[in-house]
Amino acid sequence: MRLRSALVAAALLALPLAAKAQPVAGPYISLGAGMNFLVNEAVQSQRVLNFGSFTGTNPAPRGSAHFIQPGLGTEASVGYGFGNGLRLEFEGFYNYNHVHELTGTRFPTNAGGENEEYGGMFNALFDFDIGTPFVFPYVGVGAGIQETAWHNVHAYSTTLFPQVGENINATGGVNFAYQGILGLSFPVYGVPGMSLTAEYRFIGTSGNNTFGGVAKIGNVQRANLGAVMTNEFANQAMFGIRYVFGVAPPPPPPPPAIVTPAPAPARTYLVFFDWDRADLTDRARQIIAEAAESSRHVQYTRIEVNGYTDRSGTPQYNLRLSMRRAQNVAAELVRDGVPRGSIDIHGYGETHPLVPTAPGVREPQNRRVEIILH
To answer: I want to staple 369 with a disulfide (CB 3.0 to 4.6 A). Which of 104, 271, 327, 331 is the partner?
Structure first.
């Protein structure tokens, strides 16, 4: 219960951070598979069906179902992202675990069979931009229905002849189900709209599953039997892939501006930056100060401050990073005495590189701001 409450609280506390959401805009699909750790479940037999003996007269025993860990967990989803971090989706799932032990029966350790769970949930999720183009966390909650089925769940003697034992092969009914999700998505560069995902999920159900079966000696049925399994809980580690439809490839770089020849050649100063940084180094401040001093001794009509990046991030992220670099240089020029009204600020992202490179390459000479005195 504490873990479930913590997951719900995390999702609610995340909502004020919408300004930093990484947008997923439009319809998408996702597939996932991983490990299902099903918590041991309490089992109460029905007195009239006598889960623990063959005569139908003994009191119904209490016991538990133990499972081999981990089992299999799978999911498939279709959803829609609203472009502000919020996503809504419908998920279908299937989980499987092998039964290891049935306490409360005559032969608890000689047990086996399969526990299957399947159903659907509506999920609400929220994605975050934490300042890096390589990974985006997200949280989510979901609610829906789940049906549990026991296939050949049995507890038999391995020494008696004829064989004595109990067997259940039935579905247990449909119950309300809920889940909390903590995940990370990793964009696949070169394939617009595609991401790899890694998730932790906590899944629970509310209600009872009632199974019917038989007790046998040899091939002779001696009594009907049944069991009631209460609320189910599971922890999952899931890995998957998500594809957002309609994501366009990055736009081509803008055409070079047509510049009217000036009577005197423009003076250009280059300020370089560390990878994925926009703050100014001591050397950068020295170069900016030289440009500001030069502006006081030459005639100019305007000063261009143009920011650029290398190609190691997404085009959208690089465009924002180049603008932050240009704004920091312009602010330093103003501190050094250059009038703010004479400065034009531009961010061009990864376009117009000094050194042409392939996507994903970290090239120091392309991480720059150009100060041009016209």
So the answer is: 271
Distance of CA 4 to the CA centre of its chain: 18
Residue found under tokens 């790899």 = 196
Residues shown for the chain: 374
Helices (H), the chain: 2-14, 282-295, 315-335
How much is the pTM?
A: 0.59
**What tens digit of pLDDT does each residue of 175-212 get?**
999 999 999 999 998 888 999 999 999 999 987 777 76
Edge-to-edge strand list for the sheet holding 368-373? 267-272, 368-373, 303-307, 343-347
Does 224 or 36 have the greater pLDDT score? 36
Radius of gyration of the chain (CA): 32
d(C-alpha 155, C-alpha 52), whole Å? 10
Single-letter code of the amino acid located at 319 = L
Token pair belonging to 64:
């538990």
For the chain, where are the E strands, in sequence order?
25-38, 41-45, 62-67, 71-82, 86-102, 111-127, 136-156, 164-187, 194-206, 209-217, 220-229, 233-244, 267-272, 303-307, 343-347, 368-373
Please state, in angstroms and rounded to a whole number, the distance separating the CA atoms of residues 165 and 152.
12
